[in-house]
Task: inverse folding
């Protein structure tokens, strides 16, 4: 069963359709449907940001390096790329507690499968 779309889990938030598509692709159970590596996922995010004027991109803007909670957010993404899902979820939760701007990241990490 595929993961539910983030916008159905958090309808009160604004999640661009393009970002939702990238998230669902990253969470696909079939490895052939997922990004081959973190660099490919990063490139797709950059491409989405480059399309800033489109309806899909909305007002996505990268956070400055000193953005409150960015250290925990970076830790979450690093853990995610190593398939350390519990650590990724915990770090994203810390980031969201420090700064609500990281709430979408925490939502994304909450969709990750439990480690076995």
Result:
């Amino acid at each position: 069963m595929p993961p539910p779309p983030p916008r159905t889990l958090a309808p009160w938030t604004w999640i661009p359709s393009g970002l939702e598509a990238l998230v669902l692709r990253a969470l696909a159970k079939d490895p052939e449907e997922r990004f081959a590596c973190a660099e490919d996922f990063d490139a797709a995010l950059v491409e989405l940001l480059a399309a800033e004027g489109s309806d899909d991109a909305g007002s996505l803007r990268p956070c400055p390096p000193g953005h409150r909670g960015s250290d925990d957010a970076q830790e979450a993404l690093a853990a995610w790329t190593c398939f350390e899902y519990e650590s990724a979820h915990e770090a994203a939760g810390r980031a969201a507690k420090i700064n609500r701007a990281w709430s979408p990241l925490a939502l994304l990490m909450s969709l990750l499968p439990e480690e076995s």
The chain has two domains: 14-62, 64-116. The mean pLDDT is 80.
